[in-house]
Design a protein that fits this description.
mainly alpha; Methane Monooxygenase Hydroxylase, Chain G, domain 1; about 0% strand
Length: about 90
């Protein structure tokens, strides 16, 4: 346990940041899951709409520093590729 005032403050700050990061990550995962579900169901329109809502969520998660920006870019690229592949197949 922290014994100094500055260490106690640092502990409080890290706990708040941890909760914010966790909420951001959960929001991002749910958005990605919505795209995956639409792709698995074979619904092109739902997949397109879910992708358009997921992209800003992923980008915002990266801008907050919860995930690395290249990680976000990779996720966006792969999701977009999957949706485009599904539309091309139809």
């Amino acid at each position: 346990m922290a014994n100094h005032q500055s260490a106690e403050k640092r502990n409080r700050q890290s706990q708040v940041r941890r909760l914010k990061n966790r909420a951001n990550k959960t929001r991002m995962r749910n958005a990605i899951k919505a795209v995956d579900t639409a792709i698995d169901a074979g619904s092109q329109e739902d997949a397109k709409v879910a992708l358009q809502t997921a992209l800003p969520v992923i980008a915002k998660t990266a801008s907050k520093g919860t995930i690395h920006k290249k990680n976000a870019s990779r996720k966006i690229s792969r999701l977009t590729k999957r949706v485009n592949k599904m539309q091309a197949a139809a």
